[in-house]
Design brief:
Blueprint: H1 6-12, E1 19-22, E2 25-26, H2 37-50, H3 56-59, E3 60-62, E4 69-71, H4 72-75, H5 81-98, H6 104-122, H7 126-140, E5 144-147, E6 169-174, E7 177-188, E8 195-198, E9 213-218, E10 224-229, E11 252-263, E12 267-270, H8 278-312, H9 320-345, E13 348-349, E14 355-356, H10 359-370, H11 373-384, H12 387-390, H13 394-398, H14 400-409, H15 418-432, H16 435-445, H17 451-461, H18 464-475
Parallel strand pairs: 1-10, 5-8
Antiparallel strand pairs: 1-2, 3-4, 6-7, 7-11, 8-9, 9-12, 10-11, 13-14
């Protein structure tokens, strides 16, 4: 069993040579390109975080497959309420420090349940293959990119009805495997991992059976191309500016499969369209519970940054409007986290062994907390003041001749140095007035599905007829 450090992870990538494009050009290697710096640092720091004294007791768990410790948030199949609770706690803590946890355990767990369904309904032998794949991941401590979302094209048409299909599909069947072509979107951190895991993303019909496909491959398999959008932070290293985005988060990739051969042993779904609809439902339960905790962590980060900025500006929580605004952030954090925990209290066990939190509670919680982010960004601007968009740059501060003027002009609370005040305001600038702000909005509003998908799940699962019957009983209506 291998437990890698961040340094080990970076070294492990050297044996992979994926075809990656950034800003229109193919890069030589992910480990040497400057626009991959934040991506690799984010993933590497995740390896180290799981092994740190602060987190190790909760972040590592003994695998039922290998009998050895594995990272809970990345490689564990969640099988108990305890798994769901600890995951939520860790997710809130880590996302309050570095925005994204990288919770690949969710993706492996929902895929685990889907593949189990296939064998149960079709008598196939996919589940042993997927079990072997997960076991290999756990033994090697490698990371995956989850390729779920298809482009979809004209949303009024099914995949097979598209004039020019681009969703990932089977284009050829062979005796020893299949050939696939198409595109997957939103491959977070994709170029910085070892394997890709592909799954369908929506309900399909019989005419769409070629789009019902799941498999795993090394990232540098011939025909796989990743077109990566650079991470939101600066392209150069900084000392003061962009304290989060200069170190964390990473690229988002569009993943192209161009006549890619998938050997039989790596195929987990091949045309069983009837079960494709199960995966987004499982995803709506497990990953949205995580997003409740993740968004709670972001609210914690906003609250801390807002309170610090008020303090360095010479204000405090004793100022009523500041107290009220930061209290709103606290309420949102506890509401989201409370729903993450509440979803566990109503969890159920899938026949595969995966423990799924209550989807109704998770979706209601996520829909509520994600609606607060715009207000929180407004609050950060309000409390920090106009300096977050007008302050001198780090280079100006580093110029000692200019610093003579800036030092007294930008001084605030005498308990803090001018540089400390600027560092606090730089944090708020990163959160509320930068490219990272757009990423935060995207992560909150569309990651794990849009707000409208939350409503669909809630309407589907909420027992409104029971409530109507109760209302009729109270009103003495018997028709």
């Amino acid at each position: 069993m291998t437990i890698m450090s961040g340094k080990d992870y970076l070294e492990s990538l050297r044996k992979y040579t994926p075809e990656v494009y950034i800003r229109g050009e193919r890069i030589d290697h992910v480990t040497t390109h400057p626009l991959m710096r934040q991506t690799l640092n984010h993933i590497a720091s995740g390896y180290d975080l799981m092994n740190s004294p602060e987190f190790r007791d909760r972040a590592m768990v003994v695998s039922p497959l290998t009998g050895e410790p594995i990272p809970r948030l990345q490689l564990h199949i969640q099988q108990s309420e305890e798994d769901l609770l600890i995951k939520a706690e860790l997710t809130r803590e880590i996302s309050s420090r570095r925005i994204c946890v990288g919770c690949m355990s969710n993706m492996l767990s929902v895929t685990w349940a889907l593949i189990h369904d296939l064998d149960a309904n079709h008598g196939t032998d996919y589940f042993p293959r997927f079990t072997s794949f997960v076991t290999r991941l756990q033994k090697s401590d490698e990371r995956i990119a989850w390729c779920m979302m298809d482009p979809k094209g004209d949303r009024s048409l099914s995949p097979s009805q598209q004039p020019q299909p681009t969703d990932l599909r089977i284009v050829k069947r062979k005796a020893n495997g299949i050939v696939v072509s198409g595109t997957k979107l939103h491959t977070t951190f994709g170029p910085g991992v070892h394997q890709v895991l592909v799954v369908p993303c929506r309900a399909l019909n019989e005419e769409d059976k070629d789009f019902a496909v799941s498999f795993a491959l090394p990232i540098d398999t011939k025909g796989i191309k990743m077109i990566a959008r650079p991470s939101p932070g600066p392209t150069h290293e900084t000392n003061m500016e962009s304290p989060i985005s200069s170190r964390f988060l990473g690229v988002e990739a569009t993943t192209i499969f161009d006549e890619v051969f998938v050997p039989e042993e790596n195929i987990f779904m091949c045309g069983e369209w009837q079960q494709a609809m199960n995966l987004p439902f499982y995803f709506a339960s497990l990953h949205r519970q995580s997003k409740c905790a993740c968004s709670a962590g972001h609210c914690d980060l906003f609250a801390g940054a807002a309170a610090l900025c008020a303090e360095v500006n010479g204000l405090s929580m004793n100022v009523s409007h500041i107290r009220d605004k930061i209290t709103d952030m606290m309420i949102a954090a506890e509401t989201g986290f409370g729903c993450a925990l509440g979803a566990v209290s109503r969890a159920g066990k899938h026949p595969s062994g995966v423990c799924f939190p209550d989807a109704l509670t998770a979706n209601a919680g996520l829909h509520t907390i994600r609606s607060t982010i715009g207000k929180h960004i407004e609050i950060l601007h309000d409390i920090a003041g106009g300096l977050i968009v007008t302050m001198p740059t780090e280079a100006d501060w580093d110029n000692l001749q200019l610093r003579e003027y800036l030092e007294p002009a930008l001084r605030g609370n005498p308990a803090y140095t001018t540089e400390e005040r600027l560092r606090a305001i730089q944090l708020v600038q990163d959160l509320a007035s930068s490219r990272l702000t757009g990423i935060l909005l995207g992560y909150t509003i569309n990651a794990a599905g849009s707000p409208e998908t939350n409503k669909v799940v809630i309407r589907t699962l909420y027992d409104l007829e029971k409530r109507i019957a109760q209302a009729k009983e109270i009103a003495s209506i018997y028709s």
